[in-house]
Amino acid sequence: MVQSAVPESSAERFDARRREILLSASRAYRERGFHATGMREIAQAAGMTAGNLYHYFAGKEALLAFCQEESARRLNELAAWVEEQPLRADARLHALIVGHVLVLNEGLPGSLAHLEVESLDGEGRRRVVTLRDRYEEALRGILRAGMDAGVLRRADLKLTALAILGAINWTVKWFRPGGKSSAREVGEHFAEQLVRGLLAPEVELMRPAGEVPIFGSAAHRENNATPTDSSRTR
User: Fold this and answer.
1) How far from 20 is each of 15, 48, 127, 218, CA to CA, in Å?
2) Burial group, residue 104, by CB count within 10 angstroms (0-12, 13-18, 19+)
3) Domain coordinates of the chain in residue numbers?
4) Which of 20, 28, 23, 17 is nearest to 55 (CA)?
């Protein structure tokens, strides 16, 4: 007999529970370190038995792969959204940086594992690397467009992109939900400093006027507001 497909609501609940587990794993990672944290510690942090945890993840690598692929997928959705906006290159870069910080620190709790791509192997790693390469090319495309338009200073594209990614990816190491600054405030601050440092002489910074959505969140699915350029003096 052919089995019926899993109802969408059941699948959504399953993925929601996996994200809750990822949040618990993140707390355990920060307390013990990623490599010193096993499935037993993650289960304890999530308030569940190890056997129940294995219902959601076959092992620590499966949990890592889920985080890596989910974050990379959302970042590519962010990049595609930014590309569609009627923004100048500096405003697009500003929006991408804010959105990136939001994906890692608010949209996908537990993204400390986002930095552990070297711990993946096989097909999972290949999928993640492909998604990351696509995202990095989108970032370089924004930088290239800004330099060609005279909005951003001429600089090495690869090194500039790596400098930006290194700064914003590292926020998962120290950001604490409920701390002094929200993820959005952190993203706005990083975007302000990084984009200003790349502006060509005499160019006034343009920012996206509306809030950048948190990709993957329910709010984003319900509200796809389009920002416009908002010119501010430096």
Assistant:
1) 9, 12, 23, 15
2) buried
3) 7-57, 66-231
4) 17
Quote the radius of gyration of the chain (alpha carbons, Å). Answer: 19
Q: What is the DSSP letter of 103?
A: I
* Nearest in space to 75 (alpha carbons), one of 2, 4, 134, 153: 134
| pTM (predicted TM-score) | 0.82
CA distance 154 to 152: 6
Burial of 174 (0-12, 13-18, 19+ CB in 10 A): exposed
Q: Does domain 66-231 have CATH number 1.10.10.10?
A: no
From residue 130, alpha-carbon distances to 68, 73, 124, 135, 139 in Å are: 12, 10, 10, 9, 15
Task: Identify the CATH number of the domain defined by range 7-57.
Answer: 1.10.10.60
Q: How confident is the model at residue 147 (pLDDT cuts 50, 70, 90)?
A: very high
pLDDT in the model for residue 115: 66
For 87-126, the pLDDT digits (tens) are 999 999 999 999 999 998 887 765 666 667 777 777 878 8
Q: Check: CB of residue 232 under 8 Å from CB of residue 204.
A: yes
Type of residue found at 17: R
Structure token pair of residue 151: 């909005």
